[in-house]
Amino acid sequence: MPRQSALNPVAANSRLSPMQRLLTLTSVACLVLAGLAVTRAPAASTDIAISVRAGSSDGELATRLGTQFAWPGSLDRAPDSRGRFDGFAPPLVRINATTDGLPGLPLVMPAGVTRGDWNFSNLDAIVNDVRGAGGLVVLDIAYAPQWMWDCSTGKIRDGSFAEFASYMTRVVSYYNVGSFIAEDGSTITNPAGTTNRIGYWELWNEPDLRTLGCPPGGNPNISPTEYVTMWNASAPAMLAVDPGIKLIGAATSSAGTTNVPDYLPALMASATPKPDVVSFHAYGGWSNAQTDRFFFDGDVGCCGIAGIERGLVQVQAEAPGIPVWITELNVNSGWSEDDPTQRPWNAFGAAWGASAFQRLARHGAQAIFEFQFAHPSLHQLSLIEIDTGRPLLPYWRDYYLARYFPPGSTLVSASSSNPEVETLAVRPPGSSDVHVLVVNRQVDSDTATGGAGLPASVRVTLDDVPGIVGVTVRQIDSATPLATGPDLRTMQGANSVTVDFSGYGLALIEFVTGPAPTASP
């Protein structure tokens, strides 16, 4: 009998029902024998072959896709924003709590400016948003509060970090005990009690990036040696409040810095206790002027997705057996203005993020956090437009990647005849269906900046799976409607399908082995 596809988000979120209109195609014998074609003109003149061997297992996929917030109110500017976030339903959401206040935006770090000013309302607002969507909070206190710094030296005033450790125990107690005793002897109570207990705590943010002065205008940060001292003071004190929390570090701006010893090796050598998760940040580049090729492949051993991938391998070697989280990821870390070519949020960005996902997932990254869900002013650091609630293309990319490739899926062998048309294939947990990701990340030229990408005609063939009763395809590219996301096209069962790209983009293919999928209402 017909069934609703497991990947039909109508069941999960009725707001998205317009994008669920399925097209039921009539079958003809030649289509079954020759495979199926999904055309999005213009097609490339050169065919690319992807071979999926479902009988060959390559391990288990462990990657969760998360996002993050840095300021409260991100979901309050447009009527649709909260529904978009709730529908997105990220399993993990990082909160980067700082005293950085952009014009008109409130501060987030409690007692971040003035000692004893324990106002949690702005941080609570973000925590409530995350928990309301069913997500788990990863709280990063980005640095020591402003009053803990000696601005004449640019150093933390208490080199033992006991003062900072005491601060952290109070923040942990607020969320995980429900109250704490402040410096003046008063009791600060969390109105939610322990309902919003926070299990993941990342200590400091990018300690390797240094500028002169005190927070927030300056970012003096701390050396690797100081970072270990901070960790060894804070971690045991936090665990004494709640032994069940998980501690994350070193949250550096990249996998490796120029420090010797570097932060993570120093942490692994001398931390007591060792981190439960190790983290770093990763961006394809830092300037809107950098080429498309640079954002994908980097240059001279640096940057791009290729550099991020090498960094992941390096971090895994430095912290063997410990999960690795990339707690910030995006195409471009440039924060002064949006890319005039719109790459981070157009089809280029969709292909870039999908390429990063498949490469980092293959290497065992256990969580990846897009930076961020809704930036106050920049599209290139957002998944939705903050003032309209309209999704940007990366919203749909991450929405569907999370649903087609959930943690616990079995990775199966998949290869492409073109290294710039990438693929990933899995069997979801408890299913014999096969999901295939195809990413067309072919650049126009080595010097192109903001190109459309080369067209591609890709034939995907699945082996070792008998009884295929249906095939579905979604494509995310320049033709995808932003309001409703990619259409789902449903076709007759076959072991191959051809997908045509006009330029940058990704395709999500489901080979169905159970009862054939049918159109939703």
If you had to describe this structure to a student in words, what would you say it looks like?
This protein is α/β, with parallel strands linked by helices and 521 residues long. Helix content is 22%, strand content 26%. Helix 3 links the parallel strand 5 and strand 6. The longest helix is centred in the middle third of the chain and has 18 residues, at 224-241. The model is unreliable at 1-6, 8-36 and 39-45 (pLDDT under 50).
> What oligomeric state do these chains adopt?
single chain
Number of strands: 23
Structural class, judged by helices and strands?
alpha/beta
Strand content: 25-35%
Mean pLDDT over the full residue set:
89
Task: Produce a short descriptive summary.
The chain is α/β, with parallel strands linked by helices. 22% of the residues lie in helices and 26% in strands.
